[in-house]
Structures are given as C-alpha cells and as structure tokens.
Amino acid sequence: MYSASKFAMEALSETLAMEVKDFGIKVTIVEPNGYATDFTSVSAVHAESMKEYDQLKAAVYAGFTDDIVGILKLRGKVKWHCHW
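The structure corresponding to this sequence follows.
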C-alpha cells in the first residue's frame, strides 16, 4: 500500500507539473529515503487476533523466509520481491 500511494503522489505531481508549466509554476516533490523504525515491534499496537483467520495466516506465513531483502519464496522459487 505504501509503494502504491507513493507512486500515486509521483504521478499526480508529474501531471500537475506538465499542466502548470506554461504558467511559470514549478512543482517539486520531496521523497525522503527510508529509515529504520520499530513500527512492527514494540511500538506497534495489534488488534486481537480472530481465530477465523488462523488457517489463512498459517498458509501465508508458511511461504515467508527470514532473509533481509524482503523476498517471499514459495517452494524454492522467488515469487515476489519487495522494492524499497
């Protein structure tokens, strides 16, 4: 979701820049680089788990590995890669 909304802002800004350039208006977008936070650990607030989703969560989590580059591996083949 983060990447999709970030790209949407890039596209909106580029389109706006093209539309207003003839008026002498320039558009600037600032995209800071990522940085480490603890948002998935101690500072996160988690809702109470619903048992109805336990089987689905187990199936999803079974495909994840603990590598540091965000690659989801299913049966030894790379199926998805998270671009930071």
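Confidence is low (pLDDT under 50) at residues 78-84.
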